[in-house]
Model the fold of this input.
Amino acid sequence: MQIHEMTLEEHPFLTGIAAQHHALLMGCAQSATFTPGSYLFHEGEPANAFYLLLKGKVMLEVSTSKQAALPIETIEAGEVLGWSWLFTPYRWHFSARAIEPVQASVLDAACLRAKCEEDHTFGYTVVTKIASILMQRLQATRLQLLDLYQ
Amino acid sequence: MLPRLYHILHRQKELANTFTFILEPCDNATAPAFASGQFNMLYIFGIGEIPLSISGDPTHTDLLIHTVRSVGNVSQATCALKPQDIVGIRGPFGNPWPIEQARGKDLLLIAGGLGLAPLRPVMYQILAQREQYRNVTLLYGARTPEDILYRKECESWRAHLDLDIAITVDRAPTTWRGSIGVVTRLIPRAHFEPQNTIAFICGPEIMMRFSATELEKQGIATEAIYVSMERNMKCAIGFCGHCQYGSAFICKDGPVLPYSHVRNLFFLREI
Done:
């Protein structure tokens, strides 16, 4: 599919977010690019960021003792990557590797958590947004587990 | 209806247990015209008869094309057919995809597994008259990269600059550079104008239900979503009742049905 590069303002995660909350989010954000093959993060490392993907594709992987990392899912432009930053012990459960040139807005986790703590309305907005994404991913994973096409 | 005799002209292995057959009428007459989404009853003499969706090009009906997966006695026997073997064919039957309604609109095709077969005629039809449709998107989900049906054709469709083709697999080795995840995950990534889109879905029922739910969430009207249903069929003309699904007979009123007609039935057990 032709994935169009999007601006941060066009990212679906920001849809419906009030202007003052938008500003709080942007206060924690910086741009980053990742070349194919590079890792955005590794499992077990501190989860210190939250990614809004603007371009490209990222593979989520899990390590196994027997073989190379197993791919689990791809996350693509317009989607968000990572929620381990929101829950203790703030460590990544999976690794994320760019498989295409990736552009992302990277939100600093400590900054975001502090703002959520200071402004609970903002915190509620962020948590409900993340919870909605978690629900979608959980449903997709359950469907994936059904092995429908055998 | 009596079966008409056809002989196998060509057998193509698609996947480990899936084959495509090109058939020709034994009487050298042309095969009957069909519409995308219709099916035939294929009779293996002495074994039985099964419904098979037609997977060929509706604009070229000189040959009949079916893709079959070996799952039961009859389909297993079908997959074992060789060139020159003779089978009986009744059809075409059933309600086709409402392609006419898609003219001037965005068209979203969503297929899962072997569900790509009944949608392939739609792709042929669109490619023959591409200017009549706006954005055309095919979202296809397969089990693994090795299970992608019509792989070469998918690659050639992807080369068209005016088609959006997205393929995802449920699981893949590290060498795979495509998408991993269920087909419903592709829907929010697709480009379409919800109020001006018509969607055709074909695949396992659960996949169709979740896909339709996601489409509704994206703003597509329930009435603009169509699904292709599958049931055990016998007569194929609405007499025997084997394929009854609520108030509809899948053979006669389907296999393509508006999602609005079956939406509530999808949530009922043992229907």
Observations:
- Helices of chain A lie at 19-26, 109-118, 120-145.
